[in-house]
User: What shape does this take?
Amino acid sequence: MAHANLLTPPSRIPPQTALQLSQKAPLVLSSAPTSSLPWPLSLLFSRETPETWAIHENLLLAALRTGDDAAARQILDRLTTRFGAGNERMIALKGLYDEALAKDDKELEKVFNDYEKVLKEDPTNVSVRKRRIAVLKSLGRTADAITALTVLVENSPTDAEAWAELSELYASSGAWGQAIFCLEEVLLVMPNAWSAHAQVATLHYLSSSTSVPALTLALRHFARAVELNDSYLRGYYGLKLVSQKLLPLLSESSGSKRNAEEDDVAPPKPQSVKKLEEIATAKLGEIVRQCSATKQGQSGYSQAEIEAARELLNRDGRTER
Amino acid sequence: MAILGTAFNAVGLIFLTHAVYSSSEHTAAFPHSPLPLDITIELIVSILVLSAGIVASSPQLKPIRWAKWGGKVAREGQRGEGRWTREGEEILSEGDGFAFLGLDNGIGGDGEGRRGFWDVRGKRKEYTAWVKKGGEN
Assistant: This one.
């Protein structure tokens, strides 16, 4: 199970981890990070560090999700006295608190209207714009959320997080082309992000798992992902899966060469696809073996990932134990 | 390794200070004679020892190549290095720098998603459902 660390919370927080995180609230709240002395002395005797506030923010999120509203209020007050109520991030956190406490959609609408009011005064407050979109999503108005996000990325086209969110919204409504476009924008901002490459590949694969050009693009992006990260389990898994799908299609269409040349994506050679599959199989086997050798919680892979990889290998009937 | 580095640093610093002090005294006493050989040797030796100590006490190197570095992060995950904040949270080693894009949890998965768009109500509902179910794994 993931470590409950407030400074760097795990990327996936199941409820029991969330509970562990929010149970740290009394400990953190018991000692004040700022000094109560008057101004020049408070600078000398302050015990706050940058980590203090990261921990407070993460604790606020944990308290809100576990329904510990009293602790959340205290943390929010602490943050407000430290950074001031007018701080952009504080406005967003305050909004987050209101959202969590909203009992029904009507109260959520009220929070939404508050956001609108804030944005009317200061349209450049990106945190609040993102919260506003999150509320739209939470209300189930996905189409509105997409429209709002397109405006946001038009105004700040280097915001990779917003592009990634837009891509996921498009993908969840089945608009694969738009989703892929958005992720390519993410790649323009951060071309070294292996997870973005793997995600583009996944979207290509999901958009049509029987057409050669889509599978070719998926293969290319998975190959790039493992080129950027030589132990990326998801990348090798995808590489193996896609090449398995691609191989029979390539041998089928080898008769109709002309058709393949008309596409703007040249299909790969069957030999190289076979080689890629072998590499992926070898690497997956190595990762699975290493993980069963190390102790639980010592490796960076999650148990579910390892299980999925083992299953894929077993399906192939080529596992070495 | 840390003790060795500290020892080298201490010895090197003592010799360096001594050599500098000696040469300053020497030039004050005999302004026109060249520096004696033992001071020069002490200076060079102290600098070598100090350099060795600095290298020995430096933190472990990170892989230069991107793929190797990424692979290390993926294989080992984040682990503690024995340092804690005042609140009792362990400071972990460097993790996946692209985790904030929230792309590794699938489409509409149960991950945390992106920080700026965090779905507080959904997560709250998930937690309530878990508690009602009995709060087990």
